[in-house]
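Dear colleague,

Following up on Tuesday's group meeting, I ran the structure prediction for the two-component complex that the binding team flagged. I've pasted the input sequences exactly as they went in, so you can double-check that nothing got truncated or mislabelled along the way. The structure tokens for the whole assembly follow below. Feel free to forward this to whoever is handling the docking comparison.

Inputs:
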Amino acid sequence: MPRYGMVIDTKKCVGCNDCIVACKTENSVPIGYNRDWIVTESFGKFPDINMEIRTERCNHCSETPCVSCCPTGASHIHDVGGVVLIDHHKCIGCKACVEACPYDARFIHPDGYADKCTFCIHRVEKGENPACVDVCPTYCMHFGDLDDPNSEVSKLLNSRKYHVLIPDAGTQPNIFYLV
Amino acid sequence: MNSLSRRRFLKISSATIATAAVIAGSAKTFVKSADKINEKNVKGIKKIPTYCDLCFWKCGVMAYVKDGKLWKVEGHPDDPLSNGRLCPRGTGGVGAHYDPDRLRTPLIRKSLRGEEKWVEVTWGEAFDYIAEKMIKIKNEYGPESMALFSHGVGGTFFKHLIRAYGCPNETAPSFAQCRGPRETAFELTFGDIVGSPERTDIQNSDCLVLIGSHLGENMHNTQVQEFSRAVEKGTSIIVVDPRFSVAASKAKYYLPIKPGTDLALLLAWMSVIVNEKLYDVDYVKNYGFGFEAFAAEVSQYTPEWAYIETGIDPNIIRETAREMVRYKPATLVHPGRHATWYGDDAQRERAIALLNALLGSWGRKGGFYIPYSYSIPKYKYPPYPEEQRKPVHNPDNKYPFANAEQISTGIREATISGKPYPIKGWMIYGTNLLQALPNRDETIQAIQNLDLMVVVDVVPSEIAGWADVVLPESVYLERYDDLNTSPFRESFVGLRQPVVEEPNDQKPNWWMAKKLGEKLGLAEYFPWNDIEEYLDARLKSAELSLDELKEKGIIKGPEQPIYFDDGLEPVFWTPSGKIEFYSPQLAEAGFDPVPKYTKHPEPPAGYFRLLYGRAPVHTFSKTQSNPLLHDLMSVNELWVNADIADMYGLKQGQKIKLKNTDGVISDEIKIKATERIRPDCVYMVHGFGQKSRQLRSTYKKGASDAELITKYKTDPLMGGTGMNVNFVTFEMEV
């Protein structure tokens, strides 16, 4: 049973937003909403500056406050890859998960249900990468099975330094940022 | 079942596209479009190859049509430019088709120019109006008294039309407001232009120098992909920029140069390399001309001298010069693209060319490769009428090193003065001159002298608001265009073909040019019935066929050597047949044969130099209304150094206006107080603050740098307009 995750190389990312556009067209995300976004953090005083650019989205955590708080079972862990998904039919749009997510990854779709990144599970189940990974012109995004020591993502994590977002939240996120 | 099935996604997607249109405020237009296309009601997914038009890079595209409706676009997997990955603008290309503000029908002006009041007319009425005026201009002033401003491959058939009519005046802002100084400088030095796409071998560079070139924010797809590869392999990157750009954040050395002093740094780098004899001696000896005279001139520009001009530590100047030498010839001093900064730009670009020559990087791996274009003969038309008068853009050859692309601002000047002969008609294809040319007032003054102004565009751009006739064009996903045979590492031919139908009464450019040509009595110049016939004839003459290319989208030529070291004969098309370190051509024309430093005025107290650049999600002022791209960036910000913001009490996100030294006041713009810029300049992304009321989503969103660029300094070599010469101050009372 795989555990899907992403490894994102912040050294290569230029913050171009292509991942966001690809997600929007692939998944028909409505205008005004995004399932992924860019964060640019800079530190220091001009001209001695350090900067990190990251593409962020649902971390498809192993510990999922968004799932445990859901009153209807709409927010759930998919039977393949540990991907966190939302069943739109079951969702009543109560926003408990929107509040519970420490990464602010969820929003209420205009049609009334909670929505967020799915790791493009519809593509992944056909053997493809998520749309954001395949569009990236800097090749900074990698997707794969974190439990397979021979996967590209595992090899990258073995060979490079990395961090995750808000580790104190205890959610065990499955997106890793190479630095 | 827990998983979101594919079917479920399809259902969601059709619902959300409709929602998008409603939010964007033009349900009517969208529904009309959907109905028309739904008539076909083809079930399933269709993949159609074409090439992109969101910028001039022309990446190969694979477009997806789902149940008869445009769904998404991806990079064409066989395309050498995109390698199957488009940039964010390209990926957002579907938004061009769905843009609710698109022009829908031909328009004729019904009040004063610029008031944007129109009568909707038929194509026949529009062509009758244009043809009558063009025939009148021809009879009264001669056919030369028209001019075409055209940007992009879609202008091909209008260029043909205007030549067939007998007019030699045909230009684009891409020369005198963009690449011109670079092309002139490289032609003077190496005998050849850098071209587009740039022949820069970024992916193989071991040392990459970017001077004001903000790759990553500037999303020229291939270059950004190669830049990322360079970062990955540990290329030593040197970034020179008054602003801590995205590229600077990837660099080993960041040189926060004082704006306007780049030439001083370049001269100092060359003096270090010459004085320490660190250049590629064999390369210079074998291919160089006039090296002694050049060396004598540049050796005086010491790093200590340059420090006073640039603010860059002399030790860092020496260290970075030696860093470049360490990796030569795989050191690429990137010549940039938008090079019209200070009016001495051709000489600055010549210094870049000469620095590359010292490093031996022209024609070498990791420097500048030798590109190839797929050879496809032109369509055989009857010869154009003989030119009675010369092109109007450059009277008496005032700018001796302007090239055949012509000086757009020269045509504007002639339109204002009526000299050397009057210009009475403008045809404008796909370029928003109000944002592209400096000094808006001069453009409007020129327009007042016209008897006819026609704008062809996909959206009601600002310049369209000043037209007499506006012709609505199909977007690239709805039309054929001429073949793409851009020069690259490997030659290829790419096809643009329709993927979906136009939502309203928009038409492709080739159709407009042909119909207008027929009205003008120029039918013999349009012997083909439609563009498919034209394309097939061209392709057949190269032993290809349209059917084959429709299927494949891209066909590649054979692999050929691209470096001198692979056995390619070094050829330099300069008068000496060598790399001209000392330029007799320049000396003869009365210019510095070796670049000399020019000192530029600095901002008065309380003023800041206005700098502008690109964002990855927009192209010029063309894409701001594309709903997908507008959603990512609907407005620009003013970058202000954090200490300056503090000093002026400017808060993050506060809206202010800017006033330039000519008293021009901008629209409102939000403050971005940041450590990522020098205190003597401010910066904004170009293309915002648009004034077209018909372009509802973008009207007055952010500020326009173009509006504040009232001053410009003309390059005496080639007529380019340096535009980084304007100073602005903050207007707090909003």
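Chain B is about 30% helix and 15% strand.

Cheers,
M.
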